Amino acid sequence: MVMGFKNILSMFTLVLFLAITLCHPAVAVDNLNDGISLYSDEVNITQEVNITQTNDSQYLYSDTYENISSFYLSGNYDQSLEVSKRVLDSNPNSTYALYIAGLSLENLARENEATQYYEKALLNLKDADQNITEMVNNPDLEVLPILFLKGKISHLEGNYNDSLTYQDAALSAYGYHSEDLYNKGLYYKNEGKYEDAIEHFQAALRINPSKTDSWTQLGECYEAMGEYQKAQDNYDKALLRDPNNSELLLKYGLVAEKMDDYNLAIEYYDRVLEIQPYNVDSWRYKARSLEELGQNNYALTCYNQALEYDPENKTLWNLKGQLLDELGRYEESIECYDQALKLNPDHARGIGRVSEAPSIMIETDSHEVFYETPQFDSESAQILFNKGEAFYRLEKYEDALECYNDVLETEPHAVVWYRKATILKNYGDFSEAIDSYGEALGIEPDAPAVWYEQAVLLDRIGEYGKAVKSYEEATERDGNYTLAWYEMAVDLKILGKYEQSLEAYDKVCELEPSSAQVWYERGAVLDELGRYDEAITSYEKVLELNPGHSAASYQLRTDQSKLSQSNQKESDHRNNFHYTGNSPFLDFLKSNGFDLTFMGSGTDVSVNSLASIEDGELPAPEYLWYSRAMTMSAVNNTNKSLSSFEMATMIEPDYAAAWEGKGDLFKKYNQWDNSSDAFKQALSVNSDSVKLWHKYAIVSQKADDLQTALYAYGRVVKNDPDNEDALYNRGLIYDKLGSFRNAANAYQKYLSLEPKDMNAWYLLAQSAHKARMYDVSLSAIDTVINNQPSNQDALYLKSDNLEKMGRFSDAIVVYDEILDSDPENQDALFNKGLAFENIGQYQKAIECYEQLLAVNPQHVTAMEHKGFNLYLLGEYNKADVVYDQILTLQPNNADALYHKATIKYLLSSYAGSIIYYDRLLEVKPNCITAWYNKGFANNMMGNVDEAIECYDQALSIDPNNPSVLYNKRFALYRIGKSSEAKTTKLKLDSIDPGFEEALDNRGTKFFLPKEYDPNLGYELPSRWYNE
């Protein structure tokens, strides 16, 4: 429907405000990805409101309002609402302020108030009471605000299907408007009006920044204007969306060349060749850049590679010849020039045409021009024509041309025009030759070969569209004209008319089925159409005809991979949650359930102007996508919701609510990393939002990014010191990071707010215990026990704290509490025994261990402690029995072997002691006290040499041990090695000069441990006697 200007008066305020705040002028954008800003900073709040009365009772506000939308977009909803209300105080009918207020209230979870604002905004729009079905079926830009507001109201009322209907209609109107702007841009570009083209492409991108072609066209416009840096910037943005587009990569390389950045150009040509190793243009341009860098040998390699793929390319042979000239390889250069001259010039292609027609077609082409010599009316004309023919056969073309021109002045027959055309063609005057062919065909059109020759020249000057028409004329007159079908197929491909090109290639394959080149080029067209299965068939045919065709082999593998991936994606889309965020706009609409067929009757009132985007009549497209995302989320359509959020953030990268919605959606499906990234983007826009920091903290914690989560919770606590969840989770993270004191502090702050949370009290007790804050831990665990008297874990933690504080007797009382309810609790019995052991009550400790062993006779650790306590009590025989019991269960138990060796010594069995030390040292060879005691026992038995060996082993563990040096010295004296003994004494004196004096002629002792060490990490004393 077309409304014209019938609602301008009622929408005047909307026009003014949206023009400066809602829609960014396309003409101001050179780089949408970096510079897009929908909302101007020109509007500021001041203390005074300047109001100018207009003739329609609306108010014009000039430089008096804060940029409301900037507050909304950044997530500062309270501020955007406040400013909107200030606008409405002065202008109650400001549609713009009304729906920004509604959007803000919606994000503040004040849905009822938001609905009221939307309804009031709707009342301000004329035609809002028209038939809504007609608006939906025929949407255009003028009804878009109505559809937007009805969609918002329906969503808030829970009518999600209606809401989606309105949203889809509004987005469809935007979609077609975007395509129209793009097409107008193409028109202006083709007319050479690059600034107008740029304006339209930018306006199209304002609506749909995902369209790769728009970025590409912008780049081409800037390139044509000589603004190469801007061209590169826009090609970059296109490549972000389509990184493997070989045509784009090639364009980027060519622009780099124009900027004399040959290394960068080569980088991009190489990227093309990674995708298409057979791309002749890329090999050629790479060679050119290498020549500029003076790397001629590498350039020559590139030319050779290009010629391998396209051996009939005249230009390549010429370029290679020139390079060989420069290298002084003249004979090879001449060979290249000869090769170029052999190629049929009539089949040379224009710019953009890579390969020549297959030689088999050229060789078998039997078409000739059948223009018969006419009957001239005048004898002089006949003579001039004959004279011209004679000159033509003598190759005196200038004289021949002069004769033909004279004939044409009086009798313009077709054959004369044709002769003139052939001479002009040979002179390279293609435009005039084409005209002459046209004159001949105008007189006698039934000449397929003449149409063909005219088309070839049109190719030479790049007029592919006109060439196609001439080839069509040739094939209409001769349906089996293979060369004409082939050349037409190539031109149609260049023009992007792939379906028509495919039809022509099919005809060529029918007429000349043995040409591998034709089958290969047919496959390339099918690739462009995305019909990979059919392309595969073509490449297989190529390889059947030419098994060594490397390009076909590569492309066959590539297409097979693409087909496999495509099938997998379809399967994933059908069966799984799948996310992608980079699809062209209209394709996106179709894939998301839009029915675009009804748009055929719709009328885009703005197609003649860019003003519709800029004049403020339209809600920004990102608002529409965001609203659609929220509605899709409400109906649990996850994929479409996520894609809509993606479009909103692609259009407006600083849209905090859209990033937040995206993060929430990822969070819902436990995609923690993606969710974290989305919330991080939202925070880059609104770093003061406690809610956003909290969400960011939660998903970062879930993603195990603990440092980030800790920082984010810190930001929450900084702005909301009483946020219980943040304090609690900070404690958990500090615990996990091993920062127990900080964890305890966090739990204490949390418990000051939630003192009844027994789990948190227990966590505090644990963290404080690990931080050696035993008094804090004891207090916390007492709180838990007071509420949960039978909590054994808490009782154990309390006893552990008491022991760490040296309060072993109190710990024993706690163990008794545990044993009262569970008399056979092995842990309690064992720990109670340890507590008695720590206060020197060895008999009571033994009783505990015996109670434990009555429950579990094979509790080896309890046996080890029982044996050691018996040893401390001097009950050596009983201890010996216990160690035998252990060794029966565990023959290599180091603890039992060590202490049994000690017991044997104490029972005067030196030999028995040595036996057990030997067994121990096989298990634990670095036990220095075992080597010392074994040496001591050997010395007592008179085995001096064996004693010295033991002391040497001990010194290999601790070379400066005074006790071992002292005993070794006297052992050396005993066997007469006085020199070595003196050396050992000197070392001892240098290490510990007072050691021998402290012995007071009493000698060292056999080492007897006084405390239990399960690791046998005993050290020999520095002094053996306490003075």
From TrEMBL:
Q: Where is this region: Disordered?
A: 556-576
Q: Which UniProt keywords apply?
A: Repeat, TPR repeat
Q: Where are the TPR repeats?
A: 178-211, 212-245, 246-279, 280-313, 314-347, 381-414, 448-481, 482-515, 516-549, 656-689, 690-723, 724-757, 826-859, 860-893, 928-961
Matches recorded under SMART domains: HAT, TPR
Top-rank taxon: Archaea
- Tell me yes or no: is GTP-binding among this UniProt entry's keywords: no
Instruction: Give any single GO term for biological process.
Output: RNA processing
Q: Which residues form the signal peptide?
A: none
Q: Which residues cross the membrane?
A: none
Per UniProt, the ranges with Polar residues bias are 556-568
Q: What is the lineage of its organism?
A: Archaea, Methanobacteriati, Methanobacteriota, Stenosarchaea group, Methanomicrobia
The name this protein carries in UniProt is Tfp pilus assembly protein PilF
